[in-house]
Design goal:
The complex is a heterodimer of chains A (481) and B (255). With 481 residues, chain A is an alpha/beta fold. Chain A contains twelve helices and 23 strands. In chain A, helix 3 runs antiparallel to helix 8, helix 6 packs across helix 7 and helix 10 crosses helix 12. The longest helix of chain A is centred in the N-terminal third of the chain and has 16 residues. Classes of the chains: A alpha/beta (481), B alpha/beta (255). The structure holds adenosine-5'-triphosphate and magnesium ion. The site of magnesium ion has 5 residues of chain B, from helix 1.
Chain lengths: 481, 255
């Protein structure tokens, strides 16, 4: 199979498209994790006392908690003292208008396909652009404000809407949830805040674009989304980072709160730098994401397309507390080169007639290792709870791996939990069939992979589905198995 | 158009084709018959460029070019089409998008611009009519969940869309119902022209009543052991292959 070898080789050597670095003067805190640095961050952001206290409590918890041992990969040693916990472009800490934003930053986001200038803004999508520790711009703010929608950086929300932040911060992901959640609660930098008022259907996609730029820093953003009764919002998160030889840590926390009859759709297209063909460099993407369907008839839907990062470690979950609430998880995770993904979801059924649906599509190529790990938990009061899980793995080549760990805990015998799983290889027959119709290997694999992932890609907002398809092709260009 | 000389091929070291000679000219229809396992599909696979087959000897000239030197997709773009004995399913890939991609790849190879949506749809419609092809199948995923006969018809429909110079049909008739066999044959007859050629692999003389071949060949144990006109197919239908095997055994050197 020499052709296959060639293609796999080429695939392994693919360049990362967003690996450039922005040259800009930065305000960077010295490396090290201690109370002083936390006070420094809090002071930089002019935070109220209660938030500083909360951060310090997070730091204490971080010191007490130990690293998990259950994951299906070798957890690399992370030197928490070697990382700088604050990096922001100099000059302006808070931009009042886009005119004040450093042109270098605007150029960076434009290069990433996220134009922030008024006349070029993506139509139908409001963007909050986060550069290292700081939100540099939020578009369409005024239009959203008219509807009472709050969409701003987390830092701004702390200043302008402290009561909402205080009420919900840490209410879905407790500080002590896991060591990385604790770390995030101590040192979180920026992130996005969304509040959709009662009965409002957010008329555009809200989106945050995260960019790690500075060397030797981590990114620890926090996102908090609250959908009040009867409201709807669709939110999208994208991200990239420069190519660097050392590993960088991204430990975010996302909390979603859906009240009665509301719906939150949260989509992620994750494209952090994955490291090179030998596994050197890349982002450690250790993220805690969770939503709570607090109110009855509410719905939270996670869609993720994970193509980047050296290690992806995350389980976006839903706590189905309100009766008749619905939780969904749609995932495509691609691991190529030496990438590792250990990802899945947690669906916790508490209320009556709660439903969850899990569609997971893993794709592994080269030496990629892909693990699905999912928990479906049904509490004693969750009468008539329903879950459907479909968990598929696709292998390209024979040096990669796919693993599945579905866990089910049911304390209610009216619950119905269904699980289906398949593992397949991209068939030589399929590729040959397409070849025979004039389609080359690269495009053939592309078509097969996109067909395989279609059910998940269909969940993405239109504008991003195309983007995600392109990403899949780039990550997997031309492999045959 | 196609000139096969002394073609030998092996799979995993096992010799399967053992010296095939065949000359197909534009405008001709050749039928290949022969017992199970004699190497008919293998010949088709070697011509289409399936990687598992190693050509150990011989040459194939396709319109003045060395066919064996081309990648499978280039062979396809040069106008070689294979209707598979077992068309594969490709879940989630829309039949229509696939077909559009295929058509445009072939066009690009010949320096033509991609087909505009409207022109493509017009072509689709006219070919659907020509081949009496069920338009509903177009909107489904490529062969996914298609019945055996539907897969065969989908392949033949692709053939009509791609307008190849040389079409190899590997047991297209098996799995087709009586009406479908007639419809598909009629379609193929409409596609016949002085500039294209067909190689039709079949077990049954019935298909050859609809698509009348210019030549009939018998493939046995990796070789073409007998060639004739359409009467040969009738003779085979009547007598089976045993009488040929007898003849061959006498000729074959003892190993
Ligand atoms: N991968 C393989 N490994 C070993 N032998 C193979 C392989 N592929 C094909 N063969 C053998 O090659 C021979 C020819 O097979 P082929 O499929 O070409 O036959 P055929 O004439 O098309 O038969 P049928 O009429 O049943 O379709 C058979 O004996 C088959 O078992
Ligand atoms: Mg056969």
């Amino acid at each position: 199979m020499s052709a296959e070898q060639d293609i796999l080789q080429e695939l392994a050597g693919r360049d990362y498209e967003f690996g450039f670095e922005t040259q800009i003067e930065m305000d960077i805190a010295p490396p090290g994790l201690n109370e002083d640095i936390i006070r420094f961050i809090s002071a930089k952001k002019q935070e109220p006392e209660w938030l500083l206290e909360w951060r310090l409590k997070g730091f204490q918890l971080f010191q007490k908690l130990s690293m998990p041992t259950w994951q299906n990969f070798k957890l690399p040693e992370v030197d928490f003292q070697g990382v700088s916990y604050y990096a922001a472009p100099k000059n302006q800490v808070k931009y009042n208008s886009l005119d004040e934003v450093d042109p270098e930053l605007l150029a960076t986001f434009a290069k990433l396909g996220i134009p922030l200038e008024e006349q070029k803004m993506l139509s139908g999508v409001a963007v909050d652009a986060v550069f290292d520790s700081i939100s540099v711009a939020t578009t369409f703010k005024a239009q959203l404000h008219e509807l009472g929608i709050i969409f701003c950086s987390f830092g701004e929300a702390v200043q302008e809407h402290p009561e909402l932040v205080k009420k919900y911060l840490g209410s879905v992901v407790p500080q002590a949830d896991n060591i990385y959640a604790a770390l995030n609660s101590a040192v979180f930098s920026d992130g996005s805040f969304v509040y959709i008022p009662k009965g409002v259907r957010c008329p555009m996609e809200l989106s945050t674009y995260f960019r790690i730029n500075a060397k030797n820093t981590g990114q620890f953003e926090r996102t908090l989304i609250i959908a009040d009764e009867g409201s709807y919002v669709s939110y999208l998160e994208g991200c990239t980072a420069p190519m660097r030889d050392e590993n960088q840590l991204h430990a975010a926390v996302v909390e979603l709160i859906a009240l009665d009859d509301s719906e939150i759709k949260y989509s992620t297209v994750q494209n952090w730098y994955p490291g090179d063909a030998d596994g050197k460099g890349g982002i450690y993407n250790f993220v805690t994401k969770r939503g709570i369907c607090k109110g009855k008839n509410s719905k939270i839907s996670w869609t993720q397309v994970e193509t980047g990062s050296a290690i992806t470690w995350k389980y976006p979950g839903v706590i189905l507390q309100g009766d008749n609430s619905i939780g969904e998880f749609y995932s495509v995770a691609v691991t190529s080169k030496r990438q590792v993904a250990d990802t899945g979801t947690k669906m916790v059924h508490i209320g009556k007639n709660t439903k969850s649906r899990i569609i997971s599509k893993g794709i592994s190529a080269i030496h990629g290792q892909n693990t699905y790990r999912g928990l479906v938990k049904v509490g004693p009061n969750a009468t008539n709870a329903r879950n459907f899980t479909q968990c598929d793995s696709l292998l390209i080549g024979d040096r990669c791996g796919a693993h599945t760990f579905p866990y089910i805990e049911s304390k209610n015998n009216t619950a119905m939990v269904e699980h289906e799983a398949t593992t397949s290889k991209i068939g030589e027959d399929q590729v040959f069939y397409l070849n025979q119709r004039g389609i080359d290997n690269e495009q053939a694999v592309n078509m097969i992979v996109n067909g395989y992932a279609k059910e998940v890609l269909n969940q993405l907002p239109m504008e991003f589905a195309v983007e995600a398809q392109k990403l899949l092709s780039i990550t997997l260009e031309g492999s045959v198995g | 158009m196609l000139n096969i000389k002394n073609l030998h091929a092996a799979v995993e070291g096992n010799a399967i084709l053992k010296g095939i000679n065949l000359n197909v000219k534009a405008g001709e229809v050749h039928a290949i018959m022969g017992p199970n396992g004699s190497g008919k599909s293998s010949l088709a696979s070697v011509l289409a460029g399936r990687e598992a087959y190693e050509v150990t000897e011989g040459s194939v000239d396709f319109d003045g070019k060395d066919l064996l030197d081309m990648s499978p997709e280039v062979r396809a773009r040069e106008g070689l089409f294979l209707a598979f004995q077992y068309p594969v399913e490709i879940p989630g890939v829309s039949n229509i998008n696939f077909l559009k991609t295929a058509v445009n790849e072939v066009r690009a190879y010949h320096g033509q611009p991609p087909m505009q949506a409207k022109a493509f749809l017009d072509m689709l419609k006219s070919k659907q009519k020509l081949m009496e092809f069920d338009a509903n199948l177009m909107n489904r995923s490529l062969n996914e969940g298609f019945s055996g006969g539907e897969k065969k018809r989908n392949d033949i429909f692709q053939m009509a869309m791609l307008e190849p110079k040389l079409a190899i049909m590997d047991e297209t008739d098996s799995g087709l119902d009586i009406d479908a066999l007639r419809i598909v044959s009629a379609g193929v007859n409409k596609l016949r022209g002085k500039d294209n050629a067909f190689i039709i692999i079949t077990h049954y003389q019935r298909l050859l009543e609809y698509i009348v071949p210019d030549f009939v060949h018998v493939l046995y144990n990796g070789r073409i052991v007998k060639s004739g006109t359409k009467e040969l197919a009738l003779e085979l239908e009547e007598k089976g292959y045993d009488w040929l095997k007898e003849d061959i055994r006498l000729e074959e050197p003892v190993q």
